[in-house]
Amino acid sequence: MSNTYYDIVGIGNAIVDVMAKVGDGFLSERNLPKGSMTLMDAKAAGQLYADIIPEREVPGGSAANTVAGIASLGGTPAFIGKIHDDSLGQEFTRDIGAAGVDFFTKPLNKGPVTGRSVVLVTPDAERSMFTYLGAATLLDESDIDEETIKAGKIIYIEGYLWDTECCQKALIKASQLAHKHNRKVAFTLSDTSCIIRNRQAILEYIIEYVDVLFANEEEITTLFNNQDFYKCLDLIKPHVEIAAITRGVKGSVVVNGRTKTFVEAEIVENVIDSTGAGDLYAAGFLYGMTQERSLGTCAIIGSIAAAEIISHYGARPEVSLRGFVRHKLLAYGKKA
């Protein structure tokens, strides 16, 4: 592909994940919903932060996790997202750079602080996220650099951006520029509550711009407001070139025209934390695409990357995914 420098350019919310272990009672006592992402204002997020004992603070955000995974796999990614020039923002910048991701978005010097997500992990390894987006909501069209978009093979956009109008404009501009330069647009549905708030607009966006769609089973059935999973696979078929749908322990399904490829999940002996599983599945899948692997192999690489993430706390790899995936693929008799 001509004039490309990046395998993937990710666009999303730049936030820092604050991880903590809690019991189910902690959530029920505070009427906090379990298993999804809930937006909070600064005051509520501050109160929740004061109520927990953080295990660790790790720069996160869905698309940022994905591009960090791409780098760990040996790919060349960039990231576009908005931070404040505060201590958390500086931590985000240092960490994403250390992960091997180019990040040049100009930070805010005034206004909301860098976003943070309190990620509460219950004993069943389910994660519930309570997010104050802060500076991330001020990503706008001026942050979308045409040369960076042109330099990417695939532009990867997270669905969480639909929750603010200026971010919507930014992602649409990025999608238009990507197609102007014959680059593919990949999009992840991100979260059911986000889909419910923006269903029609997201569907229209997918039909017009998206080449590669990522979702889990609940998200794709929510998008079409239809609980028949297999029907939803047929409903998405005419609208995108590729749809990669994850199903937890049931593995994943890749829809490509009239072909559906079913791939088993990796076996993980001890699931610690499901945070970032979808983000890293997307990383593995997209990396496979940039290496021109078959769609089935892309899904296997995605499953392997997701398996590494759910074996520990946090949504960033703790080993070199390149070596981890290579070892697994060879064990499966596939070219590494």
Briefly say what this structure is.
With 336 residues, the chain is α/β, with parallel strands linked by helices. Helix content is 40%, strand content 22%. Helix 7 crosses helix 8 (217-223), helix 10 (277-290) packs antiparallel against helix 11 (295-309) and helix 11 (295-309) crosses helix 12 (321-331).
Give an account of the 3D structure:
It is a single chain. The protein has helices spanning 24-29, 42-51, 62-72, 87-98, 146-150, 165-180, 192-209, 217-223, 229-236, 277-290, 295-309, 321-331, and strands at residues 6-11, 15-21, 37-39, 56-60, 77-80, 102-103, 114-121, 127-134, 152-158, 184-188, 212-216, 242-246, 252-256, 259-263. The protein is α/β, with parallel strands linked by helices and 336 residues long. The protein has a 9-stranded mixed beta sheet, sandwiched between helices. The protein starts with 5 loop residues before the first strand and ends in a 5-residue tail after the last helix.
Largest sheet: 9 strands, mixed
Helix content: 25-40%
- One letter per element, helices H and strands E, the order comes to EEHEHEHEHEEEHEHEHEHHEEEHHH
Gyration radius (Cα, Å) is 18 Å
- Apparent shape: globular
Strand order of the largest sheet: 6-5-1-9-10-11-12-13-14
Return the average pLDDT rounded to an integer.
92
Strand content: 15-25%
Separation, N- and C-terminal Cα atoms: 22 Å
Give the strand tally.
Answer: 14
The number of helical elements comes to 12
Determine the structural class based on helices, strands and strand pairing.
alpha/beta
Task: Name the descriptors.
single chain; 336 residues; alpha/beta; nine-stranded mixed sheet; five-stranded mixed sheet; 12 helices; 14 strands; 22% strand
